[in-house]
Every structure is written in C-alpha cells, then in structure tokens.
Input
Amino acid sequence: MNKILSILKTQKFWSEFLTMTIGMFVAAAAVNYFLVPSKIIVGSITGLSMVLTGILESMGIPFKLSLMIFLINGILLVLAYFLIGPEFGIKTVYTALILGPMIEIWESILPASALMEPGSTSVMNDPWFDLLCFVLVLSASQAIMFRINASTGGLDILAKIINKYLHFDIGASVTIAGAIICCTAFAINPFRLVVIGLIGTWINGTVVDYFTATLNRRKRVCIISDDPERIRQYIIDTMKRGCSLYPVKGGYKGEERVEIQAILAQNEFSDLMNFIRTNDIHAFITAGNVSEVYGLWKTSHHGKDEVRVLNQ
Output
C-alpha cells in the first residue's frame, strides 16, 4: 500500500495520466470502428472477448462485449501487479478498466453503423483495410503506453510479462501473446478471417517495435574540435547531460585531439548544433541514431535521474 501511495503522490504519475487517457480514447476508437464491425479477431483481449461473447450468444446467453473486456482485464491486472511491478500495475488498472466504457462512449457519440455504407459489413467495407487501420491506430497507442511504463491492458499485460521474463523484444512479445489468443477465433470465425487476424497480429508487433524505436530514439554524437572545453561545458552545465572524453590522434597530421561523445535527445542535438554554429566553433561531428539506452538517464533537465530502459 505504501508503494501505491508513493507512486500516486508523484507529479510524474499525474502528468502521464492525461497521456494515458488520450491514448486509451484512441485505442477505444480503433476497436469500436475497425475491429468490432469487421469481426476480425486480432490477437488481443478484445479479440478474445469477441470469441467468448460469440460462444455465449450461440448458447443463447447474451453478453456485452465491454463487460467481457472488463472482466478479463480484471484478472490480468492482478498478474500485472505481482509479476511486472506496482507502477505498471497501477497505471494498467486505470487504462484497462476504462477501455470498455470508452468503447461505449464512442458508440454513443458516433455509432460505427453511421459510418458504414448501405449494405456494407464494416466501416472500410474491406477486411484488409479494416485490419490495417486498426493495427496502425492501436500500435501508436501501445507504443506511447509502453514508453511511460503503462499499457492498454489485456494483451499488453501478457506481452509485458513475456518481455520481462523471456527477454523478447516488446514487438515480438505482442506477436507471441497475440497469436495464441488469435487461434481461439477458430471457435466462431471461418479459416479466412482467422488467417487475416494472425497476419494482423504479426503486423501489430512489427509496427509497435517501429513506433517504440521512433519514440525512444536518441542521438549518439561524436565531436572532435579545436575548442572541446566550450562544448564540454555547454553539454554539462547548460544541457545537464553527461559526456565522455577520449584522446584521439589524427591520421593525416598526427595531431593529438580530444573526442567528445554524448547521448542526447533529438531536440538537445539540435540545440548543440545551433550552439556550435552560432559560436563559430570549428568541429568535425558525426551522429547516429540509438534506440536503446540502459542505465542512468535523466528524463528531464529538472527532474530526478531515473534508471530508464528504452525499447526493452
């Protein structure tokens, strides 16, 4: 309980609260307008809920999809808290429990049927287009959630468990967990739709990896200059970042120099380049993209240093 209270008291948690709410609202739209009308069972808890409600309806037992999502997520939330950690568990409690109600909100604001052409069975009137729209929208939401150590609930909880204990990339974890769930669709869907769902699950994992790497991208900057001290001071004192100094020797003239290496966010790299240009500092600079940073990484100039693992 003390751990829960300490997390809830942090400004970081509440600043991410709005991000989680918007992300889930987007995810709910993807489910309501692309997944449910097309009846494609992509590997997700929503897909599993569609299978279970379909089985119950065939037995003459009507059951609301939003309620089934709520119940399954409730079970998985217990696993999230104990197997992944309290912060992930608390955030996922919120995101998972609001998915069902948000689907209802979207349906009340603008029913999916209102967007369908007469005689069509889905919004895009083609299962492949429905699949692509759903995967792209949902994957963006998932990547944002994983970045702040949260999730959209359901499948993401299973994927996070696989990621943590089996050390697969998060995209591969989404694919593995989703493929298992997707196969349950054989109970209510024809073979063709199940295959489409499996392909969609694989695309989902691939796109999540892409979005996650893009959001977490950093710049590894290497600088050789006649005035390394000014650059070092700017990185340390102004940007509040660390850097490493390496003695190097030029192969052409044999001059001894110092190479500065630093890992910077995209906007920080732009600031550094602007500083070098405006101060007319002569420098040879190389920069490459880095999608994984392990260890101590200051998430903001004013915040506390955090151990942050990017693109797990």
In short: Confidence is low (pLDDT under 50) at residues 302-312.
